Amino acid sequence: MPLTLSESFTTGTPTLISDIDNLNQMVKHEVEGLHFKTGSADSLIASLKRFEADSSPAYYKATRHKYETLYTEQINYQRLMQIYRDAIEVFNFENKIETSPKNQVSTDICKLEN
């Protein structure tokens, strides 16, 4: 996720975003912001004017809600730790390593979670 988009969600600021596939899937059109056609100044201007005319508090609430349910530090931390656990599990499987008290690699890394 682009840093500016992450900051936007953190502060509950609606976003005007181009219709590039990955980006437009992150921001729901007319919920957390507005989309405009990539490369079209007219489309961008129309979106700006539309947002200026109707910058409803609902946009701000929806954007902040998305942050609180998907992107908080704790949620990102949990996702990262799951990636580490999965990587360790794959590594152990591929190298035929059994996790046991002697082999603390996976449990030591996961202890960082607490």
Descriptive notes:
The protein contains six helices and two strands, in the order αβαβαααα. The protein has 114 residues and is mainly alpha-helical. The chain folds into two domains: 3-70, Rossmann fold (3-Layer(aba) Sandwich); 74-111. A two-stranded parallel ribbon has the order 1-2. α1 packs across α4. The longest helix is centred in the C-terminal third of the chain and has 22 residues, at 73-94.
Distinctive features:
6 helices; two-stranded parallel ribbon; Rossmann fold; 114 residues
- Uncertain parts: none
Q: Distance between termini?
A: 26 Å
Under the CATH scheme, the architecture of the largest domain is 3-Layer(aba) Sandwich
Major sheet = 2 strands, parallel
CATH superfamily of the largest domain: Glycogen Phosphorylase B
User: What is the H/E string?
Assistant: HEHEHHHH
Number of helices: 6
Give a brief outline of the structure.
The protein is mainly alpha-helical and 114 residues long.
